[in-house]
Hints:
Elements: E1 2-5, E2 8-11, E3 21-24, E4 27-31, E5 37-41, E6 44-49, E7 60-63, E8 79-80, E9 87-94, E10 100-107, E11 113-119, E12 126-133, E13 138-144, E14 148-155
Antiparallel strand pairs: 1-2, 3-4, 4-5, 5-6, 7-14, 8-13, 9-12, 9-14, 10-11, 10-13
Amino acid sequence: MTVTINGSSGIVTPAIVTSGTEQVGNLTVTGAGAFGSNLTFGGSQVLTTTNGGLGYNQTWQNFPIGATPVTQRNNDITYTNGTGKPIMITVYATYAAPSVCHMHISINGGAYFTIGLGSNSSGGNFAVGHCIIPPGSTYIISITPGGTTTEWAELR
């Protein structure tokens, strides 16, 4: 892996150092054990990977549909990923025919983007969307036109 920070670059191999240290100029990668390493530049930590990232020591959790923020999920309500790790969400929605359903997400209040699209051309009126949410980020799902969330699961 070639890494460039503040004009100083070098090749670090392997990308995740499981033990020991690799040094390239002011760039240091230190192994912190399996599935973890620290990246420092000039003595300042710039990146830490621990616990293996997405999917490592995480399980799928189904959330009932409702408006209680901690234990339930629904569209048009803002949630926060407070797990300290990235999570993945999967949302299933139904909508009235005949139409096309768009499932959008906004992360940290940014612009909405499409994560799912449904069409009744196959005989069913449903849409499924998936997205990875960074740690500490807020997220909100919008389903148009007039979709209804029927299932929500998160890998957390």
